[in-house]
Design goal:
- The structure is a single chain.
- The chain has 104 residues and is an alpha+beta fold.
- The chain has one domain: Aminopeptidase (3-Layer(aba) Sandwich).
- Helix content is 23%, strand content 37%.
- The chain has 2 helices and 6 strands.
- The strands form 2 sheets. It has a 4-stranded mixed sheet, covered by helices on one side.
- β3, α1 and β4 form a beta-alpha-beta unit.
- The protein is flat.
- The two termini are 19 Å apart.
- The model has no long low-confidence stretch (mean pLDDT 78).
Amino acid sequence: MISYYIKFTVVCRAFPDVTYISIDMKVYVETPHLISFAILPEYQNKGYGSKLLLLTLNQIKKKGIKTITVQTLETNNKAIRFYLKHKFKIIKLEEDTLTLTYDL
């Protein structure tokens, strides 16, 4: 089993109420899994989610990680469109949960 520890801070000048976002991940699996990724509704559809996701993926790639997965409900069409737009691929559907993967 491979162990990863990732920590980085993103300065968010675009968000007036947020000075930074700290991302801290401890990963003890072969393929890391993005557990939570959310943008406040008032900041959605303005490109902030795309920028934050790309920053996150770049930081993960710098650690030598090759693949990352994410899960969402199969009914969460907005999240599914977002991940597919960013080149994630659907790899499985179990019960009501969709798993997507991204190759770095």
